[in-house]
Write a structure and sequence with these properties.
Elements: H1 2-19, E1 39-42, E2 54-65, E3 73-77, E4 81-86, E5 89-97, E6 103-104, E7 110-121, E8 137-140
Antiparallel strand pairs: 1-2, 2-7, 3-6, 3-8, 4-5, 5-7
Length: 141
């Protein structure tokens, strides 16, 4: 009987001690830096008259504006080729740029990318007034 009473009392005491925990709290610091949206501007790319059986090269500067002061990096993506059209007629514009990956914005949040466009007018190219557009993608890294 003493063993049973000892077991019951021990169980009650143990259950009370196990069930009473100490609540612990702590702090977590949170930081958020809101930055400006990126904008892209340029003046377009203009080719002069292109004689048949020749190549023409044109350049345009793309201005990028973002957050100032943080020297953020951005990635610029341009297509490698763009179809230029005059009705059903098509010419292919080849694009390139010297810097498109991990471009660092200056202390004013600005950067410039120079894009080169090359058009080749073959002997068989149909004479016309070709136009086209292309998208430039810029994102914060």
């Amino acid at each position: 009987m003493k063993k049973i009473l000892f077991f019951i009392l021990s169980s009650i005491i143990f259950a009370k001690n196990v069930g009473t925990g100490i609540d612990v709290t702590g702090n977590l610091n949170i930081n958020a830096n809101v930055i400006a949206n990126l904008t892209v501007t340029n003046n377009g790319m203009e080719f002069n008259d292109i004689p048949l059986a020749s190549d023409a090269i044109a350049f345009t500067d793309v201005n990028i504006n973002g957050s100032a002061g943080n020297q953020n990096t951005v990635t610029v993506t341009i297509p490698k080729t763009v179809p230029m059209k005059d009705g059903d007629k098509i010419m292919i514009l080849n694009l390139s740029s010297e810097k498109t990956e991990r471009l660092v914005l200056d202390e004013n949040g600005k950067a410039k990318v120079n894009i080169k466009g090359t058009l080749s007018a073959q002997d068989t190219t149909v004479i016309g007034d070709y136009t086209g557009t292309f998208d430039i993608s810029v994102k914060y890294d």
